[in-house]
Amino acid sequence: xxxxxxxxxxxxxxxxxxxxxxxxxxxxxxxxxxxxxxxxxxxxxxxxxxxxxxxxxxxxxxxxxxxxxxxxxxxxxxxxxxxxxxxxxxxxxxxxxxxxxxxxxxxxxxxxxxxxxxxxxxxxxxxxxxxxxxxxxxxxxxxxxxxxxxxxxxxxxxxxxxxxxxxxxxxxxxxxxxxxxxxxxxxxxxxxxxxxxxxxxxxxxxxxxxxxxxxxxxxxxxxxxxxxxxxxxxxxxxxxxxxxxxxxxxxxxxxxxxxxxxxxxxxxxxxxxxxxxxxxxxxxxxxxxxxxxxxxxxx
Amino acid sequence: xxxxxxxxxxxxxxxxxxxxxxxxxxxxxxxxxxxxxxxxxxxxxxxxxxxxxxxxxxxxxxxxxxxxxxxxxxxxxxxxxxxxxxxxxxxxxxxxxxxxxxxxxxxxxxxxxxxxxxxxxxxxxxxxxxxxxxxxxxxxxxxxxxxxxxxxxxxxxxxxxxxxxxxxxxxxxxxxxxxxxxxxxxxxxxxxxxxxxxxxxxxxxxxxxxxxxxxxxxxxxxxxxxxxxxxxxxxxxxxxxx
Lengths: 299, 242
Known about the structure:
The complex is a heterodimer. Chain A has helices at residues 3-18, 20-23, 27-35, 61-77, 94-99, 114-117, 159-170, 183-191, 202-211, 239-254, 258-266, 283-290; strands spanning 37-42, 45-46, 50-52, 58-59, 83-88, 105-106, 121-136, 151-155, 176-180, 197-201, 218-221, 227-234, 269-270, 275-276. Chain A is an alpha/beta fold. Chain A folds into two domains: 3-128 and 228-290, D-Maltodextrin-Binding Protein, domain 2 (3-Layer(aba) Sandwich), CATH 3.40.190; 129-227, Periplasmic binding protein-like II (D-Maltodextrin-Binding Protein, domain 2). In chain A, strands 7, 8, 9, 10, 11 and 12 form a six-stranded mixed β-sheet that branches. The radius of gyration of chain A is 21 Å and the shape is globular. In chain B, helix 5 (102-132) packs antiparallel against helix 8 (165-178), helix 8 packs antiparallel against helix 10 (204-233) and helix 9 runs antiparallel to helix 10. Chain B has helices spanning 20-52, 58-73, 76-90, 94-98, 102-132, 135-143, 148-163, 165-178, 190-201, 204-233; strands at 13-15, 18-19. Chain B has a single domain, classed as MetI-like fold (Orthogonal Bundle), CATH 1.10.3720.10. Chain B is mostly helical. The longest helix of chain B is centred in the N-terminal third of the chain and has 33 residues, at 20-52. The N and C termini of chain B lie far apart (53 Å). Chain B contains ten helices and two strands, in the order E-E-H-H-H-H-H-H-H-H-H-H. The radius of gyration of chain B is 22 Å and the shape is globular.
């Protein structure tokens, strides 16, 4: 540490000790203020919510919302130069990394449900999806009932995996369920013919389809098996931090700023291939934009 | 850290007629089967290659050396992906492989990968065991009128294998620990079941502690068996004998 930096830190510490409002900070806000760093969990291939364009460049619908929340945190803490650190997470380690403090916030495609709420906190809902199937055009798969005795792939650690296993048990469907590590690997399993269908959140299926060599070969079919609410994942029982994030999201929705963002990621060409997901705004989402809330669907 | 410990989680129902404990046990059995089969391949293939690396024939020695360098220098994870993702695309009957039961596909890829990888390491140990013997033993065998094959079978290998029991024990343990890479291709072995338990229950600490204990139990059992073999087979007057 050079001298000027040392003085800056010393002054910073002095002001911090003297300031009354700073003493009121708790939880993540305090941690961020003290360390000068906020750590975000980012995803490799959660298209179009949060994915990387190769290297360290992250983009996506949820990522944009997360950046708005970071701006609000900077403002709240009066730290315009707050350092933002991004750590790649997977569906399997994201909950643990939030819990043990490695990651402060993760906005991608994480479902808010009652079970998870026992371990982590969630912001206001940012997206609502239905879990459906993707299959090759002309494969003859129209709905979940057609999957009897077939190989089906899903991503490990997702709610789809759980629903699929439950369906297999309860309806004796005799499906062989393959659990791949990331959505990209799931799609590879489908594309290489190891599985006839890929069950996942519909928005993510459209996302994987956009990445395919021939997107028009693939169709999304089936009755949604569940509706799920995506939220930004935070640490549990951290009301002041949650309030900053919630306020940001609610403001975006009620002020109408969210519609252009939706249009940008779901109804326009998106990087890296410039493909259009053509995923129209659902009624559930229209409701959400009118009344932002943080309720999971399985309550 | 506000964490809610819940050790009863293992007895909760995971699926129809199954508790989470059943998942862990089925994972442990898969790991055990995977490790034992891979070890069988490694031992047989490794012994053959180890002998090849010490015989007078230069061609055979080159084959052995090439195998070792190839399998020892490529990361295990990369080898696994080649077995599972790449090989079926190259083989003429690859499409038939891909239509097999997914569990069988993953298990087969993992067994072959671990077996061939560990064989390279076993090979080096067999070779060093043979080289460590005094040269006179081989010469004496040949002088007695034994063929090279008989000298290996009756003189060199019985001694070499006894000497390398301790390092072989380490390799045997490594097979079980390395088997956790199979979770990356979706095989539900012990590590993967532990991970799945976390996904379903959001209780990572209980789950990983249980997984750790199961690995330790498996490896302690392996160590006990290998120690017994070591004691039963030791040669008077050699390393490890009384």
